Structures are given as structure tokens and as C-alpha cells.
Amino acid sequence: MYEEKLISGKVISAEEKQKISQKVKQLKAEGINPKLSVIIVGENPASQSYVKGKVKDCAECDIDSDTIALPESTTQQELLDIIEKLNNDETVHGILVQLPLPKHIEEYAVINAISSEKDVDGFTAVNVGNMHIGKDCFIPCTPQGCIDMLEYAGVEIEGKDVVVIGRSNIVGFPVASLLIKKSATVTICHSKTKNIAEKTRNADIVIIAIGCAGFLTADMIKEGAVIVDIGINRNSQGKLCGDVDFDSCVEKAGKITPVPGGVGLMTRVNLLKNTVKSAKNKRK
Ligand code: GUN
Asked: What is the pLDDT of residues 122-147, one digit of tens each?
């Protein structure tokens, strides 16, 4: 009944994967084998599942990958040494350190040890800086995935009022930056924001990434608003769900992304795209 309102990550990511496979084929014909190295430290089940997904996606598009699984007790120096090796390894085009890292390791130091030319997550200071000033760089995969979904669905961004809920360095902050570059008027809400509903009710587009199941309810949105749900949570029945109360919001929204089958798939596709981009950069 509401199918026409859905912005489907499944449909878009399937199309994108076909294009990526084509590009990989071309690169391989030129003797370049795109390769992603993924490092995971410890045994966080969610991280393990994300990493498995990333490896599977690579295989689907014929991109080489290897997973370096390290014990929780790994020291920061050991991790930095591994990153340095990968930085110097000509066969590796993308390096991803799965977050979060164990508490005894300083995330910022580890991320910034990755060569900005292989930083397919777009998390190093160089790529973050270049993104904010609109220079060519690796753009973080989830924020880019949100923009891709809006554009694919034909949602105009220029001049629109957008509310982003969440201000993380991985999602909320960068997606706001990308939207400003596309001439949206952006409000970022967070845990200290007074009366979030007052802001979201005036928004043409709401993007939410706070990790709180069912936070955004129909009474908080404007009729016809476009809703992008980045949350990945489990509800009380253990079912995967987003930050949006989908059943109530779908009635009122103009367009909406589902969970599962939404932004998460676009994140995965953009990691592949960034890996191929890195491999292509070697050609230059
Ligand atoms: N942990 C949760 N999301 C991400 C991501 O996009 N990249 C990395 N490296 N770790 C994550």
C-alpha cells in the first residue's frame, strides 16, 4: 500500500553493485586488482557481522579482500605496525579499521595512521577536512549513502529545510556538511537540543542517526516530509528496526527509507565504490 513511498536500499544497491562489477572488470583488464583490507580488533558480535557483510560484498563484485582479526589484547603499537605495513603494500587499495576499538586503544591515533589515499571510510583528518571544504576525497560511506538515496528518489535538496538528528563524526556531522554543500538549510539536533519535535515538524527532510528505536513518531513530522532512517536497533522482540517509528510515519511521510533494506545497504555499496576509486587513483 505504501510501496511507492519507500526509498529502497535493496533496489539502489543492486543497481550500483552491477556498475561496480563492471568497473572492477575494466580495472582487472588493465592489471589492477582492487583490494580492501579490513582490520577488526576483539569480538564485538555487531562488528563481526558488519565485517562479514563487507567481505561478502567485495566477493560479489569480484573485489579482493582480506580480514585481519586481532585479539582484544592487541596493543595500539601492534595495530599501528599492521597499518603501516598495509599503507606500504602496493596490492592494498583500501584499509578499514572496524570501530569501535577496545578502550585501551586511541581511535583517533589509529584512524589517522591510515594513509589518506587508502582511507576508504573517509575518517582520517585529511579526508574529513577535504570533505568539509568540498575537495575531492573519500567521503564517509553512510552520509554519502543518504545523499545517494535522496537523489535516486528524485528528492530536491537545494533550498530545503533539513533536520539531522545526531551529531556523530561518522554520520550526523558529515551528512549535515554534505547537505549544506548541496544548498540545504540544515539544523543539527542532539541530546542537548531543546524541543526536537518543534524543529522536525518544520522540516522538509528528516535524517536520524541516534540509535534509539522508534524515536521519530508521526506527530513529530510534517505531512509529506522525506524521512531517512540511519538507526540500526533491535526492538523488544529482537527484531531489527531503525530510529523511526515506521508504521506511524509511513502514513504521513512523502518518502521514507526502511530498516532493514535501507541506508545500511548504501553504506556497504559506498565502501565498494571508495575501494574502486582508490584502485582507479593508482592508474593516474
Ligand atoms: N562502525 C560502525 N560503522 C562503521 C563504519 O562505517 N566504518 C568503520 N570502520 N567502523 C564502523
From this structure: 999 999 999 999 999 999 999 999 99
